[in-house]
Amino acid sequence: MGDPLRIGVVGCGVISSAYLETAGRVPDLEVVAVADADPTRARHAADTHALRAVSLDELWADDEIEWVLDLTTPGAHAEVALTALESGFSVYNEKPLCATTADARQVLDAAADAGLAVGSAPDTVLGTGIQTARAALEAGAIGRPVAATATMACAGHELWHPHPDFYYAPGGGPLFDMGPYYLTALVHLLGPVESVQAVARRPRDVRTIASGPRAGTEVPVEVATHVTALVEHASGTVSTLVMSFDAPSSRAMPIEVHGEEGSMVVPDPNTFDGAVEVRATEGDWTTVPVRAGYPGAARGFGLVDVARSGDRRTGRASAEVALHVLDVMECVVAAAEERRRVDVASTCLVPPLVPLTG
Ligand SMILES: NC(=O)c1ccc[n+]([C@@H]2O[C@H](COP(=O)([O-])OP(=O)(O)OC[C@H]3O[C@@H](n4cnc5c(N)ncnc54)[C@H](O)[C@@H]3O)[C@@H](O)[C@H]2O)c1
After folding, report:
1. Taking a C-beta distance cutoff of 8 angstroms, is the pair 23, 300 a contact?
2. Do residues 105 and 135 share a domain?
3. With a 6 A CB cut-off, is 73 part of the ligand 1 pocket?
4. What is the pLDDT of residues 239-273, one digit of tens each?
5. What is the CA(35)–ligand 1 centre distance, in A?
6. How confident is the model at residue 99 (pLDDT cuts 50, 70, 90)?
7. Domain boundary residue among 120, 139, 171?
8. Bridge partners (DSSP) listed for residue 230
9. Whose CA is nearest to atom 38 of ligand 1?
């Protein structure tokens, strides 16, 4: 292994602890400093994980840092990524890559001009769950894929997140918040998307925060909270996507893929592992032995993958895939609003499979 990738973290909210735990246990990553617009959050994260908290200005000027890990809320992703690039750092954004494709294209153009790299969550697709499913599909476990279903149905993140406002603002909603996991997994499994049709609903105007210091506070709902889409992949496979913050409960499988010779259950794409099951047209369900992906992966393995690449720049949690997924999500919104089928202009290369040895 080479030197660890030296990281500066911007944004020390709820999800930062998952990344900082990963960085604390893998030799591939070293957190140089953490910063947040709210210095108390940076100090809390630094104290909890024995790190150095700095101001944003200090972080931008820190020449030990190679990559900035942007864990701010979606509306800030473009601004933080552009500042990171201007400061000479490559940048890895939490999902969605940016709130809009226009912002994301600006970030990718700035990176190209500066000769720097951009990566993006979700990196769950690099775990053994999605990677094993992909390896099995490519080995013909269910024959040629014909159709898939992807379902995320829950009651809404205001039930557990202390500051859920951003989930109900542009760049949020079940589509932009959870869609990246499901659509990125579908792209890794079935390839890029060519067109979409959709119906979306916003049944409630406000949501009530259920936990934390703001419990009882109402949050305005500015985005659709139940989205159903038909997603046509360039391969000819069609996926049915349901992303909902309006489902009190669900027993639906996260993702199923149906092929000419069998069906496959794919584990939750918001996790890194889980059993892949297949059933031939005749026969019983069997579990596919783990055969690809990073065992024991967790949030941050997108950067571990960068650290293990030869050039410390190229990672499988690629901005190209993230931009395509963002484009697909915007097309879903347009298709629902305009009640028509929308062609997706972008495409992407599906990153290479992660060998099981990692
Ligand atoms: N919470 C989760 O379970 C979860 C899971 C996976 C991914 N994510 C993603 O992670 C990101 C952050 O989510 P979160 O739940 O940690 O949010 P959060 O609101 O808990 O934390 C965001 C932090 O970013 C800081 N921040 C905002 N704008 C900033 C700016 N311009 N400069 C510096 N700091 C800024 C805020 O002060 C805050 O501390 C989002 O993109 C979200 O989609 C969250």
Report:
1. yes
2. no
3. yes
4. 999 999 999 999 999 999 999 999 999 999 999 99
5. 12
6. very high
7. 120
8. 197, 240
9. 13
Q: Are residues 146 and 249 in the same domain?
A: yes
Is 196:342 a contact under the CB 8 Å cutoff? yes
Report pLDDT digits (tens) over 211-238: 999 999 999 999 999 999 999 999 999 9
Mean pLDDT of the chain: 97
Given a cut of 70, whether residue 358 has pLDDT beyond it is no
> Which atom belonging to ligand 1 lies closest to the Cα atom of 12?
39
- Centre of ligand 1 to C-alpha 165, Å, is 11
| pLDDT for the residue 357 | 76
Mutate which of 10, 14, 79, 184 for ligand 1? The one with the most ligand atoms within 8 Å of its CB, which is: 14
Give the confidence band of 171 by pLDDT, cuts at 50, 70, 90: confident
For residues 108 and 171, membership in a common domain is answered with no
User: Which residue's alpha carbon is nearest to atom 25 within ligand 1?
Assistant: 11
Take atom 44 of ligand 1 and give the residue whose Cα is closest.
15
Distance (Å) from CA 260 to ligand 1 centroid: 42
The 10 Å CB-count burial string (b at 16+, else e) for 60-98 is bebeebbbbbbbbbbbbbbebbbbbbebebbbbbbbbbb
Kindly state whether residues 128 and 266 are assigned to the same domain.
Answer: yes
- Secondary structure (3-state) at 30: strand
- Whether 163 is in the pocket of ligand 1, judged by its Cβ within 6 Å, is yes
Name the residue with the closest Cα to ligand 1, atom 30: 37
- Closest-CA residue, ligand 1 atom 18, reads 13
Looking at residue 43, its amino acid is R
Residue 162 CA, closest ligand 1 atom number: 20
pTM, whole model, 2 decimals?
0.97
**Residue 147's CB: how many other CB atoms inside 10 A?**
14
Do 104 and 51 have their domain in common?
A: yes
Share of the chain above pLDDT 70, in %: 99
State in Å: Cα 157 to ligand 1 middle.
14
Ligand 1 center to 344 CA (angstroms): 28
pLDDT digits (tens, 9 = 90+) for 292-340: 999 999 999 999 999 999 899 999 999 999 999 999 999 999 999 999 9
User: How many structural domains are present in the chain?
Assistant: 2
What separation in angstroms does the CA of 333 have from each of 145, 156, 174? 26, 19, 12
